[in-house]
Amino acid sequence: MQDFLAHTLAGEAPAARCGETDYYRWTWWDEGVMQLIPHRATQPALVLSAGIHGNETAPVEMLDALLEDLRRGEIILTRPVLVILGNPAALRAGKRYLSDDMNRMFGGRWQRFPESGETRRACVLEHCLERYLSDVGPAWHLDMHTAIRGSHHPRFGVFPARDTPYEADFLAWMADAGLQALVFHRAPGGTFTHHSSACFGAQSCTLELGKAQPFGQNDLTRFSITQSALSALLAGMPAVPADVQPLRYEVASQITRHSEAFTLHMSAQTENFTAFHRGTVLAEDGDTVYRVENETEYVLFPNPNVALGLRAGLMLKEIN
């Protein structure tokens, strides 16, 4: 498993595709996909993914460091884990994606997009999840990203909509991992975490850790609390309890870009979780006008440059 990231970025398969240590056995499944199974496994199993967007490199570097700690025996693995570097071609190019946004393609939605490397990769990753999650039992899926823009909460989690409540220990881990805000979707979507949650019942969350930077330009000390919590999770140990609980939000509405006439009334410097007050015009798209409906709403992921039909922003309201 040595140089997993280096092999992935080089587009090379390792010389050995499986191996064993004193604590676990590992199997290279596919480009950027590796399974590690401890000799004495506990639950829940884990899926740790990063690099679904190729310009979001800090979580990839974090995963690489965790794998190196496992290889050296500095973390004693106790849980099965599937490690995924989502979009190797985009990682190599340093681009968010090459053809279309892969994190809109899961749950079979890749079939609605023109065939590309991203549609083929989404299909491969769906099969990898099915193969793994059908075998290991209850699982947590943490899909790690960085945001395009700055944020009033640099570390936050986004939870897919689900019919049953999230487990208390899963939510508690988010606080221990230093997340400052938790955002809950109310509608299904094409994200990797929604797919693992909806199709396999995983406890799933998209972790947003800072702002997108090229490889080598990330200050990982800003996320040391998250990396420490991940280390403890892999080892089956409790993380250091949080002193402060994250704020909670739910999605109030979505801003969608339907035409070339779309205008987002936010500057390029508008950060995630910026507050807007009732009646504020947020965007216009022909005859469609998006306004703040609640007393106060907070914007998440504003992006006027998405493809037609895709989300140009979410509006949130704070909940207890």
Write the CATH fold name of the largest domain: Aminopeptidase
CATH-defined superfamily of the largest domain:
Zn peptidases
Helix content: 10-25%
Computed structural class? alpha/beta
What's the total count of β strands?
A: 16
How far from one another are the termini?
A: 44 Å
Element string (H = helix, E = strand) = HEEEEHEHHEEHEHEHEEEEEEE
Radius of gyration: 19 Å
Proportion of residues in β-strands: 25-35%
Q: Total number of helical segments?
A: 7
Please identify, by name, the CATH architecture of the largest domain: 3-Layer(aba) Sandwich
Indicate the mean pLDDT: 95
Strand order of the largest sheet: 1-2-3-5-4-6-9-7-8-10-16-15-12
